[in-house]
Amino acid sequence: MMLSLQPGIIYGPVNSRRLGKSLGINLMPGKYKLCSFNCVYCHYGWTKKHAATFEPFADDLPTRDKVVAAIKEAMQSSTEFSYITFSGNGEPTLYPEFPRLVDDVVRLRDKYRPAVKIGLLSNSSGLTLPGVREVITKIDYPMFKLDAGTEQIFKAINRPAEGIGFEGIIKQLYALDNILVQSLIVDGSPGNIDDDELEVYFNHLIEINPLEVHLYSIDRPVPKTELRLVPPDKLETIAERGRQKTGLNIRAFYPHTG
Ligand code: SF4
């Protein structure tokens, strides 16, 4: 069974494999997934509304005032969390007022919970929008998805909306500093563990030069049933090969590592 969509703006805290207790911020509608990708492994199932910009869906999005009020309430509550993370039912950076909202969250965090870190889980497709690139530096833990080395595998795994190309995404990632990259490594059809594909992917990582790279595989039901989990020993072998080739801090995460 797929995960249920997040019905509201704030959800969790969820016990994240990487962030510990993380409170989620969902800027998308509560009733459907709205994303610029339609990843074959998405734990929310297939994308219902697939678009490169969210303006046509503006009426279904929570207003900035509502988002700020929900975040303020969470910050003032007794709920314990160490991260507050933009994620939710789709791609957060495509929310029309994303840059201003990041400023709001920084302000609220500094006032109410200065120890809390701000996270972002993004597929990178909003980086060309006005103000988005600039605001990334204000986020403590900006994590960007890269699941492919080539356009062909990018299209097969991430199934982007029309107008989103692999080269554009890669160019944006090359130009960012101090980011983290997360990559879903998967076997089957489509898969990204082919030697040649990994080689090109590692070359992109060298150019991006992220602080860390997190590899993980599927650990929940996925929409495309021809996908296969990459077992922990194989994932670790890929991580080690990547470390040798790139010199980067590449870490493999498995479901049981929590
Ligand atoms: S980018 Fe994230 S939310 Fe969008 S389809 Fe892929 S996994 Fe799902």
In short:
The protein has helices spanning 64-76, 98-112, 132-135, 151-158, 166-174, 195-208, 232-246; strands at residues 10-16, 20-26, 34-35, 49-50, 83-87, 117-122, 141-145, 180-184, 187-188, 212-216, 227-228, 250-253.
Question: What are its keywords?
Answer:
12 strands, two-stranded parallel ribbon, globular, TIM Barrel, 8-stranded mixed sheet, binds iron/sulfur cluster, 7 helices
The strand count comes to 12
Strand content: 15-25%
CATH architecture: Alpha-Beta Barrel
- The topology string of helices and strands comes to EEEEHEHEHEHHEEHEEHE
Query: Which kinds of small molecule does this entry bind, naming each only once?
Result: iron/sulfur cluster
> Which sequence of strands runs across the widest sheet?
1-2-5-6-7-8-10-12
CATH superfamily label: Aldolase class I
Radius of gyration: 17 Å
Shape: globular
Beginning-to-end CA distance, first to last residue: 21 Å
Give the mean pLDDT: 94
Q: Please write the CATH class name.
A: Alpha Beta
What is CATH's topology name? TIM Barrel
Poorly predicted spans: none
How many separate domains?
1
Could you please describe the fold and organization of this structure?
- The chain has 258 residues and is an alpha/beta fold.
- It has one domain: Alpha-Beta Barrel (TIM Barrel), CATH 3.20.20.70.
- Helix content is 30%, strand content 20%.
- It contains seven helices and twelve strands.
- The chain has an eight-stranded mixed β-sheet.
- Helix 3 links the parallel strand 6 and strand 7.
- The longest helix is centred in the middle third of the chain and has 15 residues.
- It is globular, with a radius of gyration of 17 Å.
- It starts with 9 loop residues before the first strand and ends in a 5-residue tail after the last strand.
- The site of iron/sulfur cluster has 10 residues, from loops.
